[in-house]
Amino acid sequence: MLQMPPAAPGMREDEIDTPALVIDLDAFESNLDTMAALLAPTGVKLRAHAKTHKSPIIARMQMARGAVGNCVQKVTEAEILAWGGIPDILVSNEIVGAAKLARLCALSRIAKVALCADDAGQVAAIEAAAADAGIRMNVLVEIDVGAARCGVQPGPDAVALAKRIAGSKHLIFGGLQAYQGSAQHKRTPVERRTLIGNAIDASRRTVEQLKQQGLECAIVGGAGTGTFQIESHSGVYTEMQAGSYVFMDADYARNLDEAGHFVSTFRHALFVLSTVMSQAQTGVAALDAGHKAVAVDSGMPTVWQRPDLRYTGASDEHGKLEFGSETMVPKVGEKLRLVPGHCDPTVDKFDWYVGVRNGRVECLWPVAARGGLS
Predict the structure, then answer these.
(1) Minimal CA–CA distance to 244: which of 235, 232, 253?
(2) The domain defined by 26-254 carries CATH number 3.20.20.10
(3) CB 300, CB 311: distance < 8 Å
(4) From CA 183, how far away is CA 200, in angstroms rounded?
(5) Fewer Cβ close by (within 10 Å): the C or N end of the chain?
């Protein structure tokens, strides 16, 4: 059920009902501009990942700054973006099941749509769905570049699958999906460069072998917020699929740069606004944001601009704060911003973004693809 908005434009931030998903609009717009500026000299395009924000509004803002489109993980997300006016969408994932494929084929009548495959059986199913719909579907071959999750092996196996796609009158070979997800949160630059270097080598080798068979890769896509600066300078990748950069979360902020400092390329722009609901225990306060308001799979959230407060545990509806004797004790009714450990699943817990600038609510945006699992 769609929930009532927790705020209205013109409200002060401290009047927002909590828990609420808050965007600092200045930081958010800075992140959009920073990514555009970093990619512009490389000639590589951004196909920002909408699984992070689940919003056609944000997708359009990314395209206004040069993104070629968006990628998603689910058919529902693709539908929401296409209905919201996004013209170019890649499902950077394997889609299995006749009903889902039929939905994707239907969507291709209002947007340019592509998806991935790593198995000949998947290709046959996509082919049958496209034939039934009377269309030609773009299909990318996903290769395993080190994450050991999805993807056919680079080289001959990938070439064989690409030839199968290219040989179908109902399909178009669209290129390679080559995402190294396990590299994104490696803390040191050396670790990230090593893993992505292997991914680049595997992708380059596969592209060259495809060329030998007369197959060109319109797209070689991958990369994320933690590594896009490496892939974008590789000379192999053509599209970056970073998503979390728009918001940043506490876990990405733990990555280190070459000087050993925390990476500060992008600003924290997404917060869960929470209210202190109890301070009955010495050195402990309870917030109204627990598991149901903030994801903790990548670690506990941090309390924005309050290093003296530690969010140490979550239950369904409570977040536990701990602090020392010298701390300014948080008062019942006080509102605090939490920086989520992982932005993507945190976003999926809310129906609304509350956009704030200079302490005032400026806009409300629906999290349009919330809960889109199919």
Answers:
(1) 253
(2) yes
(3) yes
(4) 12
(5) N
Who's near 91: CB < 8 A, 6+ residues apart? 71, 72, 73, 74, 75, 78, 104, 113, 114, 115, 116
| Encoded amino acid at 300, one letter | M
Fold topology of 13-21+264-366: Lyase, Ornithine Decarboxylase; Chain A, domain 1 (2.40.37)
Domain ranges of the chain: 13-21+264-366, 26-254
What number is the average pLDDT over the span 58-81? 98
In the numeric block, which tokens belong to residue 349? 């817990």
pLDDT digits (tens, 9 = 90+) for 143-177: 999 999 999 999 999 999 999 999 999 999 999 99
- pLDDT tens digit sequence for 302-317: 999 999 999 999 999 9
pTM of the model: 0.95
Predicted pLDDT of residue 324: 87
Decide if 369 contacts 81 (C-beta within 8 A): yes
Fold match between 13-21+264-366 and 26-254? no
Please, are residues 273 and 314 in contact by the beta-carbon 8 Å criterion? no
